[in-house]
Amino acid sequence: MLLCQKIKIEVSKQDAATLEFMQGKCRGLYNWWVMRLHNGERWNLNAAKKSLQESKAYDQNLRFVYGKLLAEVYFRLDKAMQAFFQRVKAGEKKPGFPRFKPRHQFFTLCYPAMYLEVQGKTIILPTGGGGKWGPKCYPNIIAHLTETPPEHFREVAVSRDARGSYYCSFVYDDTEQHQDKDPKENTRKKHNMRKQHPMREDGVVAFDLGIKTLATGVTDQGRFYHIGGFKSYRYYNKQLDKIRSKRDKCKKKSRRYIRLSKVYKRVSEKKRNKQRDCLHKASHLIAGKLAERAVVIGDLSQRQMVMKNHESETPKEHTKRRIRNRMVYNDWGLYGFTQMLEYKCLRFGKELSIISERDTTKMCHVCKHKQDMPLWKRTYRCSNENCGLVMDRDENSAVNIYERFLARPGPHTGDPVRCAECSPQSTCLKTF
Ligand SMILES: [Zn+2]
């Protein structure tokens, strides 16, 4: 399958300036087209591509940008326009017209692989001009890769992060790579990738994704998994808030202001990296190491919708909910997590099912009685007196998701039998 490896690159000051120049020109071309389309012009990819010569005649500097990068701008805009047309066709209320790319963001440069030269850890990124195309204003960029790139790759995207470091992202097919070259370099990777974990073909594991614990899972054998997730966001947020408040007291653009901005960027990047790393590890654990072949999770897109419909809430409740939303969806990165799960499951040959998770936290998994479960209630105590289930709320929810998965229409034949005297302990699941 297609994978991507993002590698940090080191470039000289001059080469960095070249990259900035090229991305600026590409963005300019993109935004110019977006503006024309905003004014009602029809989009036609071929006609737009043909107009590049005119654009070059108008702005001589475009000649110094590598031609393939400029061509890529049209494809990128075409993708955006086609996606927009599709959204309109689907009848979405806010189809979202392609936007202008802001100046402070790096406009990603996409190089097709066939024009790139990699020697060891050095990659040469061509610039415009030279030969029959006239004088070369900027020499080709010679970038040092901090890691070994994949051997056969399709295209390379150059990007920049918030702190000003540049990266090359290599798109490659993992089946196309030679597996037996330079064992030293790949030992660690090989160890991670090729280690086969036993898989139970009929095994099922269902996960409840949440705030307090990233994922709580239950298997068809009644075993529970608890994956804690990123814990230190509070530590980072405290730091970040402090830095920001300090910075906001300074005069804008002063030396101290600039320094504190830099620190802020550094700390927030560290937080992001830690968090992403944590999500990668958790999804890798689920997709790569657990024995169950079928993985079930709840559908998060529904959760947000349920949360949105609160018209009768007080302003205080509203603020609370907004903060909570930010916490779940931004800080915890649950969406990113499901995306990682999706591709990792595919990669490890697992089957990921996403099912509706409506009421799974509210419902008792034994007697199906429903009760409200505010977020602060960590334990589910069934209010049905004949049942009296006491269980961790996430575990209860995971069991509900598991049962819903088994009950779904389809070729599945599993018929869960509940134990007669359902004990409050989660161990009673063993009789499934
Ligand atoms: Zn109950």
Describe the model:
The protein is of the alpha+beta class. Helices cover 42% and strands 18% of the residues. Helix 1 (13-38) runs parallel beside helix 4 and helix 6 (233-249) runs antiparallel to helix 7 (255-289). The longest helix has 35 residues, at 255-289. The protein is globular and about 85 Å long. It starts with a strand and ends in a 25-residue tail after the last helix. The site of zinc ion has 8 residues, from loops.
Task: Give a short synopsis of this structure.
The protein contains 11 helices and 14 strands.
Keywords:
14 strands, single chain, 42% helix, binds zinc ion, 11 helices, 432 residues, 5-stranded mixed sheet, alpha+beta, disordered C terminus, globular, 7-stranded antiparallel sheet
Fraction of residues in H or I helices = 40-55%
> Uncertain regions: pLDDT < 50 for 5+ in a row?
411-432
Elements, N to C (H/E): EHHHHEEEEEEHEEEHHEHHHEEEH
- Choose one word for the global shape: globular
SSE class: alpha+beta
Number of strands: 14
Strand order, main sheet: write it out: 2-6-7-1-5-4-3
Number of helices: 11
C-alpha end-to-end distance: 36 Å
Give the averaged pLDDT, no decimals: 83
